[in-house]
């Protein structure tokens, strides 16, 4: 868990998951796993499972629309760490994202632009290179079939429908993923849609460098982006319940009616020609409650989908997948911990959902020009009134047992749970923090706490004092008498 305040560094090996012998690895290769969806969440999960020795088949179908999207530097770093180098190479150089919000312009944020067809194709090349079996086919259905699962896929170019058996399914088909009968429900944010469109470049304005801009208006907001090739992309985001879309033939006129009122439209689409019709796409924030069971796991937008305003869609998808291979591995190899692993997945993704949702809420709340319109009223207060970073006091900090990621497995161990980190902090720089906190709390004086920590850590009194100061700085300790 990343800490805002730096802890003193102590070299101590982290607890690792048990090492598997060659026979166990051979057994894992006989376990078949089907990953349904070739986006960032599906590929990240598939490559993680291959590294653990599983036989993985990934089914990918082309997206129904082309899109230019923005990602943060966190996505670039994540792709680099996962070894998805070809996908990383499709990201543009960092460029500013300008905000025209609450009547003011702000350009403090940088992003990278990515053309999704190129990005998705590169992800599949990375997957193949890293040992995933990739089949370009559309998944029609999957269902239990005795002890295994049957997946039916539509082969391309009129190849017909084929059935195959597998031991586990990873659902990674994004927002379009169907919900089996056993899925009991979801939490949804304000119903939102985005109208996506490409534009052929128009008249030169003297500002043709790559970059993007967001502008708010009474009924929603618009994002414009210009790629390195000069092509412009627009995303008009509106409230579903407050918007009556016209027929397909009148969609261009409908979008132009909004865009022509906005100042930044002149910069991006002056004299430009729209390419084809706008593509309506659902962009409501969604949290799926039943995202894990004994035979399947949902990742990416199929489990948690966020509001598009922060531009964190790919980051959220990757974040949901980083732990998925360990969750699945624990379920398959250590069934006595299967329920624990499933609960870990649900807790982590729910926590991600609310963090992203509250980040969006706080940004929406900065726009106060149209408090009477339904679009802004709803989004100023959803998902709740809880602060993004709740205050921490010694009375709100607990030592408890929770599931954590240990190497390639999910285990249950002692952690420190705080309002900001309700899922617990296990280790910092390789040191388990729960024993440190318990010992420091039991001391009657600051000198006694330093002495006790020095003995526990087997380090100098000075280093123990640094750790004590860190515990105090987090707000975990009451003042000594």
Summarize the structure.
This protein is α+β, with helices and mostly antiparallel strands and about 475 residues long. Helices cover about 30% and strands about 30% of the residues.
Which terms would index this structure?
single chain, FAD/NAD(P)-binding domain, globular, 8-stranded mixed sheet, 5-stranded parallel sheet, 481 residues, 3 domains, D-Amino Acid Oxidase, Chain A, domain 2, alpha+beta
How would you describe this structure to a colleague?
This protein is α+β, with helices and mostly antiparallel strands and 481 residues long. It folds into three domains: 241 residues, 3-Layer(bba) Sandwich (FAD/NAD(P)-binding domain); 91 residues, D-Amino Acid Oxidase, Chain A, domain 2; 80 residues, no CATH class. 32% of the residues lie in helices and 28% in strands. The protein has an eight-stranded mixed β-sheet. α2 runs parallel beside α8. 37% of the residues are buried. The N terminus is likely disordered.
Which helices and strands, and how do they pair?
Elements: H1 22-29, E1 32-36, H2 40-51, E2 55-60, E3 68-71, H3 73-82, H4 85-89, E4 95-101, E5 104-115, H5 116-129, E6 133-136, E7 138-145, E8 148-154, E9 161-166, E10 168-171, E11 186-188, E12 192-200, E13 211-217, E14 220-226, E15 232-239, H6 251-259, H7 263-269, E16 273-282, E17 286-288, E18 296-298, E19 304-305, H8 313-321, H9 324-333, H10 338-364, H11 374-379, E20 398-406, E21 409-417, E22 427-428, E23 431-432, H12 433-442, H13 446-457, H14 461-473
Parallel strand pairs: 1-2, 1-10, 2-6, 4-13, 10-18
Antiparallel strand pairs: 3-5, 4-5, 7-8, 8-9, 11-17, 12-15, 12-16, 13-14, 14-15, 17-19, 20-21, 22-23
Helix pairs in contact: 2-5, 2-8, 2-9, 9-10, 12-13, 13-14
